Amino acid sequence: MKKIYNRIESIVGNVVSVNAKDIMYKELAEVTSAHGKSLSQVIRMDGENVSLQIFSGSRGVSTGDKVRFLGHRMQVSFSENLLGRIFNGIGEPMDNGPELNENFIEVGGTIVNPAKRIIPSKMIRTNIPMIDVFNTLVESQKIPIFSVSGEPYNELLARIALQAEVDIIILGGIGLKYDQYLYFRSQLEQGGALSRSVFFVHTASDSIVEGLMVPDMCLSVAEGFALKNKRVLVLLTDMTNFADALKQIAITMEQVPSNRGYPGDLYTQLAQRYEKAVDFEGSGSITVISVTNMPGDDVTHPVPDNTGYITEGQFYLRNKRIEPFGSLSRLKQLVNKKSREDHRAIMDGMIQLYAQFKETLEKKAMGFRMSAWNNKLLKYGEMFESRLMSLSVNIPLEKALDTGWEILAECFDPMETSFRSDLINKFWPKKP
Amino acid sequence: MNKTQGVVRFISGNMISVEFDGDVLQNEVGYAFLEGKTRLKSEVVRVRKNIADLQVYEETSGLKVGDKVEFSGELLSVELGPGLLSQIYDGLQNPLVHIADEYGFFLPRGVFKNALDMKKTWEFNPLCKAGDVVTGGDFLGRVPEGIFDHKVMVPFYLKGKYKIEKIVPKGKYKVNDKIAKVKDEDGNELDLTMMFEWPVKLPVKAYKEKLAPSETLVTKIRLIDTFSPVNKGGTYCIPGPFGAGKTVLQQITSRHAEVDIVIIAACGERAGEVVETLREFPKLTDPRTGKSLMERTVIICNTSSMPVAARESSVYTAITIAEYYRQMGLNVLLLADSTSRWAQAMRELSGRLEEIPGEEAYPAYLESRIAEFYERAGSVKLNNNENGTLTIGGTVSPAGGNFEEPVTQSTLKVVGAFHGLSRDRANARKFPSVDPLESWSKYKSFVDEGLVAYAKNILFRGNEVKQMMTVVGEEGTSIDDFIIYLKSEFLDDVYIQQNGFDPVDASTTADRQKYMFAKVVDVLKKKFSFEDKEKARVSFYELRQLFIDWNYMPFNSDEFIKKEKEINTKLEEKK
User: Which CATH architecture fits A76-335?
Assistant: First the structure.
């Protein structure tokens, strides 16, 4: 039996309330207004007073509109038929394809038992030296790209998606610009990956609340595939919009804000999504790469700050390249011991020297005389930036490590690098 | 006794308000019935007239207004007894491995399992006889638990004098078999088993007196042991921005620290980090015992995806188990990662209760809760005059890496040592990235104080020279100052930095630290004279290379001795 109510008691922001009985917490309801039907979800119950957040926004909703409770929570149809399809933020087709009505699974809510996780052990090769050598991406990792508007983060995301060896790609767009959505579609189409992809796209022109469901949709579907032994890559762009939607609802509900207006549970909300990244014992895996826009290029802003504490590292994308400082893959040591014995040494050693290069650069800018050592560092820094850091470099890991030794040998004496002697004996390029 | 019942009136997130009939206890456990059958565990956090506010330890979706709630009449407690070691529990002491065996990949709602194995038998050896008079915390007997002699104790809540009427002979018993009968001064008889329960939010005080922490806890991390040591029974905190290496530092400590038992409380952090510990530890051997590291470890894990309210209680669960082992006269180390998540859980709850917020919306009682928690550490003299210690090391994750925020500040007020992580050092790949200049400790190191002071002075002055050089440049710096700068860099590179992933360098014993530090200070004290700065730099780089190679060699091995000779020769040359 579906319950229908004809009286909306209050409309505040995108939240409406009705007097209703026997309703489940987080149940869905359909609100029919003069402008069409829209989906809503129960977010608070006080006696018979039930508050609903309307996904498409409350604009044009009348107090006399009809509210029909659906008797279930948010769900999504899960089957192989999802592949190659494009949906909006609440799971309606956007690609003129048929609506899917089979095998509904509940969205969100599941928590993986930590005892059933295994230690990630497979490297995902991207052929980008700043990732492969210095911040290795690992299957089942959750890692955001910290960036600012104007940087090519979506391009980087698409490139990683196409080069990574995964079975299924799921793209979640939250507040995605329409042209960026078209870009992703054409990139994956050209790369021949569209047929193994699923899109859930909430565009910048849709109601902000609708974006709230996108991460859960993507991750529930990903979980379904991972349990069928598939390696799934989930791309979420951009999670700052998701956090802003949370903020908007929290303020409407008169919750006490904690930091710059964001709700106190921002960490938990983000963590519950990111923690879906998993390597299941005896089954598939979910890898999550997201974009986190840093408002004002400020990493201490609550969204990037909380994200950094949750994710397993981050890539800083700045001036169209991945910054060595701040960028980090927390899982790299799980894979870089078996890649090649010099991998770790190159990874740390080259960055230590690059840090000294940066200091030298500052000194130079202040007009100090450059010592012989400073000049060596200056030469090194430039070579490092052009031959390894630039995003245009597209070489496998082994080639990149060799390049690293070549750069070192061209700039320094072995002793100046603080590498261990056994590695120097083995890898230092011999002068012809 | 009839249990108090109630019905749900209000739901928002993990907070419910319940209209009840009868009496409820503050902080008692209640169960909300989802769809009439699934019991969602909750805790009373506020009572106003006939309305009780409860925080629910599980996801509340699907709950309805009008659903039934049953109150248990008991505070949130943990089970204490043999069989806790090498277990992995959630924040409410549910054994995660058993749940995985039964329910597969996901955590079901409303499932509670016994923390201890009720079927397993233990070899009980009595330490008392009929007629003995005992009190809470006294040893009734012992059972072998892995590498330890697990003491079976008189429950801590028995505070008066109890006469043993009967105690079972040596033999195999299950944890809930009756092993003793005692009689209190009023003649009431009581049966005791090998296990009992204790409410997590109350500190265990079944000991004679609390002592000042006096003995160093060797973590085998040079920077900590030499420069900012921690004592057994003391407290320390590790605040740092994300990516600075808090968790790695905790993991290394959990492996190498010289204590009997390590309790790891993974509180609201990444599941992956717990997985590393729980998959790796069984394979690693503890050099002190030759057994697997897991045998001395208990993991309490409430990762960030698990319900928030249970996160708040997970640190209490962990510390109660830690106190239990301390009562046996063992040295226990509790590593809490991260106390900020615990504070945030309090903030979330406080927000839902609509309490007046303090700084950054944290509740006004934040500081006292943090102090209460750290005060549960300590070195104590037990009833039998033996000593037991409980050391707490907590990480703090300050928003934006800014130490001025409430959780860091409240923690700094109560701890005995501060290991501040620096993002600059982490960026420059200097690990462990604890800032040696900012960190402090109220405890004494096992390394000679005079040498430490000398080295610290070099670090301090070296840093001054470095700052100065950014203004006046290398050419504007005198050669003497420049050598001080090189010495401080040398100390940092060869002693303070440590490679946590190298089998040898990852852990430096106290003996080796004393030995090596003396050698390093020799270099620092040595008067060098160089023609120019470039020669000085090259010279120090040569020394650095020798010392770094030395660090990777096993202590007192042939190559270690050979390298030391090489170092001595080099130092002679520089005269």
Answer: 3-Layer(aba) Sandwich (3.40)
